[in-house]
Specification:
There is one protein chain. The chain is 0% helix and 62% strand. With 138 residues, the chain is mainly β. The chain has one domain. It has a six-stranded antiparallel beta sheet with strand order 1-2-3-6-7-10, with no helix packed on it. The chain has a two-stranded antiparallel ribbon with strand order 4-5. It is elongated. The mean pLDDT is 83.
Amino acid sequence: MRWQVDVSSAGSYGDGPRRRAVLNSALSLTNVLADRWVATASVTQVAESDVIDEVRASPAWTVHGVAQLSYFFEDSWSITAGLDHTQARPLVSFNETALPPGGYMRETQVVLGLTYRPVGRFEAPGLHVFERLAPGGI
């Protein structure tokens, strides 16, 4: 398969004095462009809101996106170039008391990586997960 799409989401609500509401979501796309080229993009978000002085505060949130292009050479080496971007409106706390979010944060990074895997991929013979074909198949 050349494409893989992963989607997940979760929410929670706390029944305490702060009655915290949290929502997490993630989306990831992977595409095998050619024999040794792989492109990946992912976005995650987290939003949370608390009740402060009997009023639900504006939500604090974080959005994080990553785009990467990887080239695999030999059997154990890969090189990766990517862009990593985060935006947030963080929750502020003072003396362990949550305050409404204030201000924004934005950060962008260019990432270059070289990876060496001396052992190979994950193997778990007890679970019938093998790096190479097992004798007689699985």
